[in-house]
Amino acid sequence: QVQLVESGGGLAQPGGSLRLSCAASGTRYSISNMGWYRQTPGNQREFVADIAEDSTANYAESVKGRFTISRDNAKKTVYLQMNSLKPEDTAVYYCRAEQTLAFQYEYWGGGIQVTVSS
Asked: Rounded mean pLDDT of 82-100?
């Protein structure tokens, strides 16, 4: 069973930066895809960015050019560098991981709050 633990959230001013981290543990096998989603009260969880094991990355249009996703395969950790933050980036951010063994498994972190406010 893979556990995902997010860190790095908090309060930032508009135009500021934050860096989220998500570390996977509990497995000796590689993680195929890792990503970030976010959710605000009353809304569905939405895709932010993801990155494959070969570092191919995808971004939501709303964060392109401002957020950068990266990963360290040896540490089974994914990062989200968030620059030029806007109040609308305020949300709970969730880490997601996929692992393909005999079957494909999906794991989620518990979420971390990001608040962008002056």
From this structure: 97
